[in-house]
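Suppose you are handed only these lines of text.
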Amino acid sequence: MAKLVRRTLALVAHDLKKDEMVEFARTHRTILARFNLVATGTTGGRVLAACPELSLTPLKSGPLGGDQQIGALIAEGQVHGLFFFVDPLSPLPHDVDVKALTRLALVYDIPMALNASTAHMIVGQLVD
Ligand SMILES: O=C(CO)COP(=O)(O)O
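From them, the structure of the protein bound to 1,3-dihydroxyacetonephosphate can be written out as follows.
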């Protein structure tokens, strides 16, 4: 019998990592299609352009509060995995938001991949 409630994954990628996120989504589109997805604004737009069949809700862009929106969803128990492709080499105006988001994923002990190689390893292990 079909499940009524799908679990939710969050997708976030910094600008220099967005191509990797699109490739990740394309590669695993069949798995990702079993989940509801939320994403920061620009990341979500890029992923939806590549994989329009996915059930993805874009939130605000990261620097405008998107990381914090995803953090709030994590705190409310509504996100069950975080794929956050972080750019460690570029300064970011919203660095504190990035830290807050990864901190909440740790606090609530949700699976979190901070780079593409980890994401490819864990995406098939998530329970939908
Ligand atoms: O800045 C981000 C995460 O910190 C990503 O935001 P965008 O997906 O809107 O570019």
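What can we learn from it? Residues 8-124 form a domain with the Rossmann fold fold (CATH 3.40.50.1380). The chain has one domain: 8-124.
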